[in-house]
Design goal:
Blueprint: E1 12-17, E2 21-25, E3 31-32, H1 56-73, H2 96-112, H3 120-135, E4 148-150, H4 153-169, H5 178-194, E5 206-209, H6 222-234, H7 241-253, H8 280-291, H9 298-311, H10 313-318, H11 335-347, H12 352-368, H13 384-397
Antiparallel strand pairs: 1-2, 2-3, 4-5
Helix pairs in contact: 1-13, 2-3, 2-4, 2-13, 3-5, 4-5, 4-6, 6-7, 6-8, 8-9, 8-11, 11-12, 11-13
Length: 410
Amino acid sequence: MKHAAFNRIALIACVVTASSLHVRVTADGLVAAPVLVAGTEPATVALVGPPTPPDAAAIESAVREGIAFLLSAQEGTPKAQWPYEGVYRVGGEIPVGYRIGGTGIVGECLVRTPGYSADAARQDAVRRACTYICAGIREPLMNPVYEGGYDVRGWGYCYGARFLLVLRAAKAVPAGMEAETDAALRWYLDAMQKTEIPEVGGWNYARQPGIETPSPASPFMTPPCLQVLFEAKAQGLPVDAAVVTRALDALERCRTPDGNFAYSAQRQTHEPARSIPGAIGRMVCSESVLMRAGRSDVANIRRALDAFIANWRQLEIRRKKTGTHVGPYSVAPYYFFFGFYNACDAIELLPVAERAEYRRQFEQLLFAVRDADGTWDDRVFPRTRNFGTAMTLMALQRPQFPAPAEWSSK
């Protein structure tokens, strides 16, 4: 594989995989994003993005505006939630797993953004969110004993636990809530481990009926769950190493020799290279968590990032559209900011000398899809501006965050 060294000054056309994936960058630094089709020359799409990448001041201003929006969007009685909203409903309502997960993501963003310790408005909002997430363990529809099938409570376990871990690491657990937070965190971690896929390992929100039925693992859901367990262990909390090993094995079965990742897999996948444009979000998050466990390397990270830049337009085609998995690559709108956040996270696993140019490309693309009101949204639902804005703010600030925990079986 040849590494695509992006250069703003000269037009570059370089092969980055053996499947005729080309990344072309024009003289002004904008990516002309092709579609990967094995054995064919890529078709160039229209240039996108602002004329120049955002500078530090522009990013700081966007973060400030985004935080103000997130504070205004907290809802409920009392205002404690930032629900994620999709097409899925339980009894006609947004499921509690989406409510807890979405609240955890926005809460994490508020805590991680610099200035939190001096921002009373953010602290008050996070206290209310923490109270809501801690109370979530008593919700009947969060019980880890359930019937399987399509069910999103696992997102609540994952991002509820992640938020509480972030609070602990930042020494920002709201005063007087230490015991409650610790009990809720341990409950979420235990529930997530109890609901691993039997025999196969890993996690999937779209499982076969019957909680004991083996099902394909999802490389969309398994990586964030693993990262939570890595961090939990680093903080001294109990984590079953066998659960982690099975999940890592399941992820590797989803990966092909050319770096593609199947949508889900129960056995070793043989996914064709032509499906890579629909897999780029899965590729960056899966390779990152595998590398943090010693099962991937810089070459794989670079390959996933290059594929993302080359094919991100396939995500953009589906952004803010109705429906979920639409051909030719079965891309759903909700992959957009999930993918971009995880790509920006993956950049930090590259050698230091390579990171700035990748960051510049992703910053430019994220500003290209910013809405006129200063937020980011990848769905047709107003509430998903919470998710899109929080994920984007964290992507833009990712270099400032502490490095995520790594895994060692020792």
